[in-house]
Amino acid sequence: MNLRHLMLRLVATFCVIAYSLTARGLLVEDLYQAQVLVVDQSEAALQDGVASGLQQVLIRVSGNVEVARHGSVIMAMRNPDRFYDEYHYTKTDRQLIVDGELNDAKLLTIRFEPNAVSRLLREAGFPVWGSERPGIMVWIAEAEDSGQRRMLEESDAGEVAKAFEIRSRERGLPLLWPLMDLEDTGQVSTAQIWGQFLGTVETASIRYRPDCILSGRVQRQGGRWVGRWSFRLDARWQNFDTVGSNPDEMVVAVMDRITNQLAQRYAIDASRGDILLTVEAVDSLEAYAAVGRYLNGLTPILDVVVDTVEGDEVTYQISMEGQPDQLKKLMDLDEAMVAVPTGRRYQLRFRWMQ
């Protein structure tokens, strides 16, 4: 469970109805770690598992499901040894079918080397998406075979919720599920989610401070799983439908679609350049040091050099990958700084809020 959701559940436990969160954007851990089921600990199984794991990581870090089709990536997956630095096996109660027979499966966990993976992606022309990802508020109503409808929650044991949990982890996208406490149930009902009352959904989402919202309704129709979805990004709703032979197939289509859109907005492309970035309200040595640490910790920034200091304003010469708009959108996920309009593409201005 991510930190924001843990905070929300603790507050709900003590029956505090009105509250707000100050964080935006969520830190996703283990971007460069993959888990694959294998039948044994042989060298052949290891090589196959590492190649499969590398594909997982490349998709998660780039945000692009097409990455595995690129020629240089295909070559890399044939010889993946240089991309990982450790691995281990864990016993499981799961099985794999090999040559028509069931075999006990082991879980192979591989940790890949971030610099090597990032270099491969950039050489292939794909973006590199850092660990700070937008939080997605999820409201889903499911029609059961009995005809009744219910809201899905994080602890839901159903197939649809499990599919979202697995696929969101694979894509590196944090999902925020509703608590469905008194505040939620007082603002939105299952019928309103099913009927796509999007204004109501927006209002109910405010307390969670998400970066985007996914609202949907799902049901099984004639052996197929059908979903109707609404996705809110940049203050605009878009609607789409998905169909799958099972819940996982339906959810994969949803997650691939929104992952591609979010990666286009937040992932950093392979271009490089220099910009000026001015930070206001740097009014102490502690703030000066904190701003420097913050900027150096951002994924697209390669180098930070102080250009000028005037009063409580510090202007930095920034060497970076990607476009200035991408850097601004990434920084907007975090309320450490608030953007101040400048009207200039290659000069950013922020106000330090810590």
Structure, briefly:
The protein is an alpha+beta fold and 354 residues long. It has helices at 3-13, 43-62, 71-78, 114-123, 159-171, 182-187, 190-194, 198-205, 247-266, 285-296, 324-332, and strands at 26-27, 33-38, 84-98, 101-112, 132-133, 136-143, 149-151, 175-176, 212-221, 224-233, 236-244, 272-280, 301-310, 313-321, 337-339, 347-352.
Descriptive account of the structure:
Strands 6, 7, 8, 9, 10 and 11 form a six-stranded mixed sheet that branches. The chain has a five-stranded mixed sheet with strand order 13-14-12-16-15, covered by helices on one side. The protein is of the alpha+beta class and 354 residues long. It folds into three domains: 155 residues, Rossmann fold; 91 residues; 81 residues. Helices cover 34% and strands 33% of the residues. It contains eleven helices and 16 strands. The N terminus is likely disordered.
How much helical structure, as a percent, in the residues?
Answer: 25-40%
> What's the CATH class of the largest domain, please?
Alpha Beta
Q: Could you please say which CATH topology of the largest domain applies here?
A: Rossmann fold
The tally of strands reads: 16
* Cα Rg: 22 Å
What layout of secondary structure does this protein have?
Elements: H1 3-13, E1 26-27, E2 33-38, H2 43-62, H3 71-78, E3 84-98, E4 101-112, H4 114-123, E5 132-133, E6 136-143, E7 149-151, H5 159-171, E8 175-176, H6 182-187, H7 190-194, H8 198-205, E9 212-221, E10 224-233, E11 236-244, H9 247-266, E12 272-280, H10 285-296, E13 301-310, E14 313-321, H11 324-332, E15 337-339, E16 347-352
Helix pairs in contact: 5-9
